[in-house]
Amino acid sequence: MRQKKSILGNDGFQSVLAALLCIMVGLLIGFLVLLAINPAGAVNGIITILKNFWNYPSHAAAMKYLGNTLVKTAPLLMCALSINFCYKVGLFNIGAAGQYVAGAGLCLYAALAWKLPWFVCLILALVAGAVFGTIVGFLKAYANVNEVISGIMLNWIGLYLVNMALSNVKEQASPYTLKLASTNPAAVLPTMGLPALFSKNKYVTIAIPLAILIAVAVWIVLNKTKFGYELRATGFNKEAARYAGMNEKRNIILTLMIGGALAGLGAAFLYLTGFEEWSCTQSSVPGMGFNGIAATFLGGLNPIGTIFSSYFIQHITSGGSYLDKAIYPSQISDLISAIIIYLCGFVLFFKFTLNKRLAAAADKNGQNANAVPEDAGKTETGKGGEKK
């Protein structure tokens, strides 16, 4: 008789359970850090981080700042999808940060200097990120340059190139680029009535639903198409993929090109809302690309799970800004995110251990079910040898 498979053996359930464990341990360690800094306010501190926009007593204000969290979730989700897509092919796209920078630079320059409309700026951001990703892919495929090394180098090259280019469209008295809404309103992403749901928050645009739709599309491409199968096969074993007739060099380049396009598009999803401007004097790569690493691993390397994990990472990151700065550093939320990233490295170990225990339990139950009693087959006899 076939035994019903336990829900604990389901890969999706295991991913969710592992993610929840990572979150709980990350929050616990964050709480212990708050406790070490100032025990009196540690409980309120961790609650403040988790509440985020609900720290505002007014429902209207809470909805407005929920909108702000969603505005920053959209680009984070795109960076997470970029890393997720490449990881499925066995590539670690740490260069997503540089591809994000390239997308931000070209879309802002096109909007502020060339006065182009929003949809053209979106396409240019996508192209800029794709070009940076293609460079990494070409170096990996034809020169065997590790994508981590080339990606990190391009992160800084992209940052300083963008700083120089956008210096031509910045305000005179500040390092920030010109206001998008006043310089070129046609470049601002359409809202499609969404601000009405978030207390007239004008920064809530079509970027949010578009990012979710792209996540679904990525899942379909990877899991339901021949192209996605070839990419994943290349990630599992390049030699076997080549033997099967697949062009592994082409697949590597295409993968990093698509990953770069996703990250570049993510930058446009933020800067074309007008939510913030680019600082032409910044000396560090924006953390959005690196936070995408946390989001994609916390999401179980699943594009759909990444939607929820991206929101959670952005939620606690924004929640850290509400801490009392006189007592606690706002970077405590970044520490929690970093711990979660570290713990996500044990997800596969967690799944392996759980599956091993489930298999052992199943074998034991199977042996007990198939065991034959010692007196089986014997007949009970009475006096005189008669059977009863």
Summarize, please.
The protein contains 15 helices and no strands. The chain has 388 residues and is mainly α.
Note the topology.
Elements: H1 11-37, H2 42-51, H3 59-87, H4 96-112, H5 118-143, H6 147-166, H7 180-183, H8 207-224, H9 226-236, H10 238-243, H11 248-271, H12 288-298, H13 303-319, H14 332-344, H15 347-370
Order of helices and strands: HHHHHHHHHHHHHHH
As a percent range, the share of helical residues equals 55-70%
CATH topology: ABC transporter involved in vitamin B12 uptake, BtuC
Global Rg: 26 Å
Oligomer: single chain
Compute the number of strand runs: 0
What fraction strand? under 5%
CATH class: Mainly Alpha
**Main β-sheet description:** none
The coarse overall form would be globular
CA-CA gap between termini: 32 Å
The residue ranges in which pLDDT falls below 50 over 5 or more consecutive positions are: none
Give the count of structural domains. Answer: 1
User: Helices and strands: which structural class?
Assistant: mainly alpha
Mean pLDDT value: 87
Determine the number of helices (DSSP H or I, runs of at least 4 residues).
15
CATH architecture: Orthogonal Bundle
